[in-house]
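Sample intake sheet
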Amino acid sequence: MDITRLFSLEGRIALVTGGSRGIGRMIAEGFLAAGVARVYITARKVAELEATAAELGERCIALPGDIGDMAGIEALAADLAAREERLDILVNNAGVAWSAPFDSFPELGWDKVMDLNLKAPFYLTQKLHPLLRAGASADRPAKVIMIASVDGMKLNPWETYPYQASKAGLIHLTRRMAAHLAGEHIAVTAISPGMFASKMNRAAAMAGDKLTAQIPIGRVGVDEDMAGAAIYLASRAGDYVVGETLVVDGGWVNAWIPKDFVGPGGE
């Protein structure tokens, strides 16, 4: 057994939404280290996106776009189809959170979160289905990886109602899409990250002793933790994993939570 080939992504084409920073960037950088031929990263902020692509090297290509609505989803799929004849790996990572009191939670916030976190992964996968089919075979399945959250598996104390609901929905959507697409040699899985430092996860970014004490492993996640999980699912090593959600959280979901809990969504 060749362990190097088992985890290799050599020659594959990947797209990572929300790839300019945070978890998306961690995954894109990991894919490059594992040998992808090209990884496309997409996000709304063009300057930030292009700066990340330049930092990650010539095999990382910036593909600006806003997938918060159908027009943006269709435009991104068309842009990629104009550049590539197949897609081997799609990572639906782009997401947003919104916090507001229950009695005044705005419809705008609800719709924005649900559209980007739950609707976009479904419809982007749908629009890229022809490219995924072109990259799929029995010997080397195409991969769709949803980025969910531990907040979709366990309550946090913050009033991020649509965020928590959208991530729980994404976990179940992963199962449903996996059941449909497995017969076409397209394996759909998900990752539920715990506390990784990012602009969205302010609590993890600050990472004080009070927070890390609540994580059984004793620290927040780092780039290698997320990259390793994504490489596993995207590579030959993860070919027999279908419809499952891989929890990458240092044991947080299965831990007892004290009364002075600080949640993944921050304060």
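Comment: The chain has a mean pLDDT of 92. Residues 133 and 184 are 7 Å apart (CA to CA).
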